[in-house]
Description:
By secondary structure, the chain is mainly alpha-helical. The chain is built from two helices and no strands.
Amino acid sequence: MDLLVPEIGLLVWNSIAFLLLIFLLAKFAWKPIMKGIHDREKSIDDALNKAELARQEMSRLSSQNEELMKQAREERDQILKEAKALKDNIVNEAKNQAQVEGAKLIEKARIEIENQKKAALAELKGQVSALSLDIAERVLRTQLDDKAKQQELVNNLLKDVELN
């Protein structure tokens, strides 16, 4: 039962030791411990602030990145529009040039055909006139041999002249 009821001397020495321990802790350990806790608390707050700043920076960079992507898409669309317009322009120029060249070739062919036609007609006229002269010469020879046929020819020509 002695264990349950302490003696007064033991209680005094324990109290003195406890008070001495508290005094020593307050004098030498309490300030560094509190300083360490405050430093730790401050570093945690700084880390949280830096994390918040980093999150805001990431948000800003993300929105900036989205804006750059939007601009890049717009630029790409503009380049594609310009390329399509340029292609259409080149195709239209080529069509127009082909039509002009085709029209020139057709006109050249028409002129060549017209020239060939005129040359053929001139040759045909020459052949017809030569044949006509040859036929007229033969007819006149046969008709001039006989006096009765000459008289009949003159009479026929006079009838033709009167009718017209």
